[in-house]
Write a structure and sequence with these properties.
Low-confidence stretches: none
Mean pLDDT: 93
Helix content: 10-25%
Order of helices and strands: EEEEEEHHHEEH
Distance between the termini: 21 Å
Structural class: alpha+beta
Largest sheet: 4 strands, antiparallel
């Protein structure tokens, strides 16, 4: 699961489930969309790349059975079963934050260029 963190207005934005459908943060200065939701390719746009991040939540965390909370042993098990090339494994975390465009499945587009890039 990927989400947009827009620090311009402290919004967490869930991308629309449909490809190329833009969803804006609360103040309208940043937005997110799926380039391809099936492969997890995400686009993010803002006037300032320093005001946006992608939040990644490991699907194993979201899909694991949980009675009241996911404990340390369950987290370790999820990470152990994660492919080695995934950033979750590298960072040893089930939740990660990174700048869009720093992974092969995310990209950043300046807001004023957005119409030409979709």
């Amino acid at each position: 699961m990927k989400l947009l963190w827009a620090s311009c207005c402290f919004s967490i934005v869930v991308p629309n489930k449909n490809a190329k459908t833009i969803k804006y943060c609360d103040c309208g200065n940043s937005c997110v969309w799926w380039d391809n939701p099936a492969t997890g390719e995400l686009g993010v746009s803002s006037n300032d790349i320093n005001k946006v991040s992608v939040l990644g939540i490991h699907n194993g965390l979201l899909l694991s059975e949980c009675s009241s909370y996911v404990d340390k042993h369950k987290m370790e098990e999820i990470l152990k079963n994660t492919e080695t090339n995934y950033l979750f494994k590298t960072m040893n975390s089930l939740i990660i934050r990174f700048t869009p465009g720093n992974t092969s499945d995310t990209r950043f587009v300046k807001l004023e260029e957005l119409k030409d890039k979709l």
